[in-house]
Amino acid sequence: MAKKRQAAAGTPALTAVTAAGVTHTVHAYAHDPAHPSYGEEAAEALGVSPSQVFKTLVADVDGELTVAVVPVSGSLDLKALAAAVGGKRAAMADPALAERTTGYVRGGISPLGQRKRLRTVLDASAAELGTVCVSAGRRGLEVELAPADLAALTGAVLAPIARG
Predict the structure, then answer these.
(1) Is 21 left (phi over 0), alpha (psi -120 to 50) or beta?
(2) How confident is the model at residue 35 (pLDDT cuts 50, 70, 90)?
(3) Is the pLDDT of residue 121 over 70?
(4) What is the pairing mode between strands 24-28 and 132-138?
(5) Model's pTM, two decimal places?
(6) Above 80 in pLDDT, residue 8?
């Protein structure tokens, strides 16, 4: 039965939001492989501010993979991410390891519906917005939902982890 719902929703991320009964909007656009930034491309395609579109980054914090969800208008502060989860050091995770662990490809990694649920930190700026857009699990597909719903579905803590 879960397989049918996943097929209907299209990705594990959309299956997760649908199964949870969370109000959301799916936005699809034609992905341009030549675009230099997946997140900025999404913001442009959706006609929204880059501060409303959040990118999903996977970092290694003291040997544990951790998901950081930050606005595409900024960058991840690795020290702040480590501090947010009680760690000492953080570095970006190996992209191949991030893909294997989450079940998504780079540029399409969603904080939702990951193969292995990872500790997640959502930038505190999300709380100031009515909705945020995050990858829905593949390039050219975004899901828009309330930040509180995103935090609840991912078990995220909110912390100021973005710069810029």
Answers:
(1) left
(2) confident
(3) yes
(4) unpaired
(5) 0.91
(6) no
